[in-house]
Specification:
8 helices, mainly alpha, 0% strand, Leucine-rich Repeat Variant
């Protein structure tokens, strides 16, 4: 019936928009990511997680965090942790700008679960004053 056709069409659109999310053109990537968030397309959680670990563009990273918050899937906790939690390994992990980490922290508050509670406790002790203050503000 029509329902199936609409769902297939929707899946196809999500797939195409997900491809655009990888664009080197920041504006196009951000627009595509925002669209995925608005569509609450959980099928693209892998796309958003990959973008979070591969992109170095702060605007793209922020858009990915916001879309993750709109979708609210627990699948996002791990990729967000990579941005937010301290580097525990010997090799240095990439540093993220405060503004990206603040949006990532806000996203954590939009995902319910015990994993996020643990992250929030750690973020309250973050070495970056701006992140710490933002977390305390979000938690109030």
């Amino acid at each position: 019936g029509k329902g199936l056709a609409r769902r297939l069409n929707r899946a196809e659109v999500n797939r195409l928009v997900a491809e655009l999310a990888y664009s080197r053109d920041t504006e196009l990537a951000v627009l595509a990511i925002q669209t995925l968030g608005r569509r609450k397309a959980e099928s693209v959680s892998r796309t958003l997680s990959e973008i979070l670990t591969t992109s170095s563009d702060p605007d793209v990273l922020i858009a990915a965090c916001r879309a993750m918050g709109q979708i609210g899937s627990p699948d996002f906790v791990q990729p967000l942790a990579k941005i937010l939690l301290p580097r525990r390994r010997l090799f240095r992990r990439r540093r993220y700008p405060s503004r990206v980490r603040i949006v990532a922290a806000y996203t954590v508050f939009q995902i319910p679960g015990e994993h996020t509670e643990v992250m929030i406790r750690e973020l309250k002790q973050d070495p970056d004053d701006r992140v710490r203050e933002a977390v305390l503000f979000f938690h109030s």
